[in-house]
Amino acid sequence: MTNSYRIDCLQYCNWSEEIFRQLREGKVDAIHVTIAYHELFQDMVRNIGRWNRLFTRYSDLIFQGRNGDDVRLAHNTNRTAVFFGFQNPSPIEDDIDLVQIVHTLGVRFMQLSYNNQSLLATGCYEAEDPGITRMGKQIIAEMNRVGLVIDMSHSAQRSTLEAMEISERPIAITHANPAFWHPALRNKSDDVLRALGQSGGMLGFSAYPHHLKDKSACTLESFCEMIARTAELMGPENIGIGTDLCQGHPDSEVEWMRVGRWTKEIDYGEGSKSNAGFPDMPSWFRDNRDFGNIENGLRATGLSEAEVSGVMGGNWLRFYDTNFDPISDAGDK
Hints:
It contains twelve helices and nine strands. It starts with 6 loop residues before the first strand and ends with a helix. The chain is an alpha/beta fold.
């Protein structure tokens, strides 16, 4: 049993009472959930409507989170605060006014690109990365102003580094791993991780098998050693968990994530049909009930209790406290 906070800064599940109860069994105080991959604004609003019905039906288990104090409320009332995010900027379409509107609706994270080139930045699957676009620079400034966090989890290297340079507030990479531990298009270089730590940004470590050493056979010891090594590179205060848990979905859902409406062909990702569909999760993290395994594994690496507590949720909570409010209300600007 832990008295520290537990925050998972990326999940995309087939949400149900069973999963909400698993969150409570795992003592998970907050989750960042994807409410849009390729949806435009109206489709995204319908997704929020579905979440509103879940909040009403399961109010004893979950509620919508908007700031760090909601994480504390969840912790104190044995519930889970749910924070909204986009994995693609498609819901704001080409309209900068929608940035403030989606923040008002409760969205707190937005990726500037999802694998492909967007109107704002380049995704990690593109052969060339020209960096942040003209519109991207304007959107970053508006995101900074309203308190919508820039997420570069699926973005290419130049775009990610430029986003950090342009942004006046720290950015996040909510769900990715270091490339030095396992090479993958989505995993991040030492240069990116160093710059992220120096700028006060946050990295959430992913348990998604395609981004782990040995994939589904990755051991808990390997996962936790990866975290400890990364702490040495970018500071233990700048890292957390972002499991990228995709629980209960059919394989057709991962096809939607990867291809949306932009192609008639199936893009398996990272150049291999072996990556089609959802891989089996590692045995030590099958669902939210297994967060205690990660916490115990981190202790075994030699990280201090304070550092383990930070990785499990304390670092994300500090980040939430200072980055979700408009600049005029943030207190740090």
